[in-house]
Structure formats: structure tokens, C-alpha cells
Amino acid sequence: MNETLIFGFSMVCYILAFVGFSAHISLNRENLYMPSRGIAWAGVIAALVALILRWQSAGHPPLSNMYESLVTLSTFIALTGLIFTRNQPLPMLEAGTCVGSILMFGVASVFASDVKPLIPALQSYWLHLHVSLAFVGEALFAIAFILSYLYCFRKVMTSAAEKNSSVDFLEKAACYLVVVGMPVVFILSMTLLASYLSQQPSYSERWMGLVWGVIAPVSVTMLLLMLLTWMYRGAVHKGVEKWLPDADSLDKLIYRAIALGYPLFTVGGLIFGMVWANKAWGRYWGWDPKETWALITFLVYSIYLHVRLARGWNGTWTACLSIAGFLVTMFTLFGVNFLISGLHSYIG
Fold first, then answer.
1. Are 66 and 206 a contacting pair, CB within 8 Å?
2. Among 51, 183, 196, 334, fewest CB within 10 Å belongs to which?
């Protein structure tokens, strides 16, 4: 009960921080930025306390099922966002990390939160290393995803506000596809998840909470924001120019987040996972669905780093690769567990 209340307090902090960052941006209230960061930090600290309490009560790190994994990843996203912006204020990114953390926790609330003993396959100290490092890497991929979306959003606003915009037609089309398509992808994926859960006896009583507590309000908010953004695109363009770095700076920040997350995910998600698999199942690699999709995630981000460093690509196309990488990451986290049975399907 104490852990649940603390997590609830943490979510309230994230919501208040999001409102504060949004007011700071839209109302041009400079004095709201630091209090919003303080509230976000309070939410992160509360979430860390709740995770520690759960660890103590369960006797193992909170990484063993979907509820624990999602609340841990939610905390890592918020924490990583605050650390990433410690020297360079980016209120739009910080607001985005608050939204990401809230959504992760909202989905987590659908799953059973009661503490259960570890199944034999998870009773290993490699659980700490494998999953926690992979999640830190995924949190940084989430930061890169938000920055990539903001990059495309900036390009769209620039091309809409400037008649003689230098944005290439194909780049403009890709950016519009990202800016409009991502909310649609989110709504569809959450709808499919809710539909799946409604058919499972253990989740049927809680799936309506996912629909009315997460999907419906977020969908309505996204649609209203898209409408208002287009109606007042001139004013939005001025705000974007003020509150977002230029496109080149955003591109460098995307690269920095992926360059930090890539080795962590590679070591934690793949290398430590292979070592653990050998100890648990007697083989390093078995093409289990989760292993396969973790490898696909690794390959997508490997392609990103290759084309950026060796080929000199940057800008819109590498931002799109970053977004594709995060979508694959989310499928590895959610889709594999729900759609493909395997040795890693611990969704209880």
C-alpha cells in the first residue's frame, strides 16, 4: 500500500511538472521552469523510493514481470531526461519525458501489481545486470525518440511558416508523416493492447481503465493539440524558434542520446543476456523471439550509427531511423510478449 501511494504521488508530480513545462512554453513564463524541474525531481525520487520498497518486500529487483518492468522503465525515462538536460534546458524534451513516464505507468497499472516470488529462470544475479542496463539504454533511446519527433516537428513548423522554406519535398513529407503518424500509431497500438487484454481473463476487469484512463484522454489531447497547432501555426513557429534549439543542435542531441544508449543496451540487453542464457538454458543464443527482436533493435541502431558516422548522413533521415529504432524497441518490450510466445514471456 505504501509503495502504491508513493507511485501515485510520483505520477501526480509528473503531471504537475508537465503542466508547468507546458505553461512555461506557451505562456512564456520563465519563472515556471525551475519549479517544474523541482517537481519532476520529486516525482523521480518518490518513484525510486517506491522501487526500493518493492525490492525490499519482494527480495528481488523490480524487473520480473510487466508491471515491475514498466514502472522501472518509467522511472528511468524521467530520471534520464532530467540528467540529460541538466546543463541545457529543453522544456519541450522535459515535458515529453514526463508524458512518456506517465504513459508507461498508465499501461503498467493494467497488469497485476502484487509481489510474487521469482520463477526459477529469473533467480540469478544476472537479472540485475541484464535487465537494468538494457532499460537504461532503452530510456536513452526514448530520449532520442522524443528529440527526433521534436526535430521533425520543428521542420514541419518551419516549412508551414516560411513560404520559401529550404526543406526538401521528401524530407518535408517524411516529417509530416512522423508528426501526424506517431499519434496515430500510439492510438492504434494502445487500442490493440486494450483489445488483447479484454480477452484475457486475468486482465478483463482492468482493460477499461486502460481505455478510459490512458487511451481516451491522450487521444483527445493529441487531436486537440494537432488542431490548435495547425490553426495557430504562426504563433507555434515563433515558440518553436524560441524553445527548441536549431535543427543541427537537435540532430547532435539525438546522436548523443543514441551514442550513450547503444553500448548500454548492447552490453546489458545482448551480451549479458547471452551469458545468462548460457547459465540458465545451456546455450548462448537460441533465436527465441525476444532475443531475435533485441538483435533487430541492435541492428537498427547500428545502422543509424553507421550511416551517421561512416556515411555522413544527418538530419531528417537519421531522425526517422531513430524513430524506427524506438518503435522496434517498444515492439520488443510489448509485442513479443503479447503476440509471440517464448522463453521470455513473463507478462503476469
1. no
2. 196
